[in-house]
Amino acid sequence: MKVNKEGDRMKRLIKVIIFVTLLSADEKTWSSHSAEIIEQGRWEIGLFQPLRYGYSNYAEFSIHPGWFFLIPNLEIKEAQKSLFGYKTASQYRLTYPTMLLNMLSGDGIGKVIAPEHEIPHMFSFSGSFIGTRSFKDTKLSLSSGLDIGIVLGDLNPISTIDLPLVYHRLGVFYNGWGFHTGIDIERAISGKFEILFDLDLIALPGYDGNYSIENKLLFSWNKSRDFRITTGYKFISGEFPYGKDSRLLPYVPILERWVPIVEFQWARNKK
């Protein structure tokens, strides 16, 4: 009985790791959700967030150092010409999840993928076009893009991880492609406080569980240009192989309850 309880705890811990990994790749640091490019020489990072670096006033790079050796990743955002009063940018992301997924495959405590499913080398490529426009204290950002999953080998279609947030993020490898679109509204409330609301759609046409709708509401306190604290929630609703499901995140399986996002973010300008 004790072994079973410890095994259950470990499986819950692994689920937490998966959730944190994918949430951290998705949350926002300063203007990462918009078409704005951070200035040359500036870097921004969060406790669970990617490291963003302003390569020039027209391009920035982003990687997640904490997860890089489990999920190698690279994101590039490049400024484009303004259109209809909107600042625009193109954004490209490359991710290699094979190492982490194979760590989760096998028998024993902490494994969430059956041992007969060896995950082949896989790469995901996402390209997005973002437009941002300012209205007094409010910024509106619109984005749309295409997701491509490249699998170099045989990927068993029943090797999926059927968890909210995880399933549709990895679904592009099983479906081959998908698209995403979203809207972000950022508004200064008063003084050093601001709020961010976003609504996103991830679609995998023809896939078993072909969409996920995601909503996030974040409140931020900006102590300065170099430090802020963010809290809020993420809500997911979509179709899965077992039917429709919804989840308020972060949901911590160990505690079996929802807890608010709490994120610390730092930034510096190159002197």
CATH topology: Outer membrane phospholipase (ompla), Chain C
> CATH class, please?
Mainly Beta
Quickly give the CATH architecture: Beta Barrel
Query: In percent, how helical is the residue content?
Result: 10-25%
Mean pLDDT: 87
Q: Order of strands across the widest beta sheet?
A: 1-2-3-4-5-6-7-8-9-10-11-15
Rg (CA only): 19 Å
Task: Count up the helices.
Answer: 3
Number of strands: 15
Describe this structure in words.
- By secondary structure, the protein is mostly beta strands.
- It has a single domain (2-269), classed as Beta Barrel (Outer membrane phospholipase (ompla), Chain C).
- It is 14% helix and 51% strand.
- It is built from three helices and 15 strands.
- The chain has a twelve-stranded antiparallel beta barrel.
- Strand 1 (42-46) and strand 2 form a beta hairpin.
- The longest helix is centred in the first third of the chain and has 23 residues, at 2-24.
- The protein is globular, with a radius of gyration of 19 Å.
- The model has no long low-confidence stretch (mean pLDDT 87).
